[in-house]
Amino acid sequence: MKSRILLSCALALPLMWAGAAANAAPPAVVDNSATVTPALQAAVAGSWRDPANVRRDPYRHPAQTLAFFGVQPTQTVLEITPGGGWYAEILAPYLRQRGHYIAAVVDPLAVAEGGGRDYQQRSRQSLEKKFAGNAALYDRSTVVAYDPAAPVFGAPGSADVVLTFRNVHNWRSAGQAEGMFAGFFRVLKPGGTLGVVEHRATADVPADDKSGYVGQAQVIAMAEAAGFKLAAQSGINANPRDTKDYPNGVWTLPPSNRHEPAEADRYQAIGESDRMTLRFVKPAH
Question: What pLDDT digit, counting tens, does each position of 158-184 carry?
Answer without folding.
Answer: 999 999 999 999 999 999 999 999 999
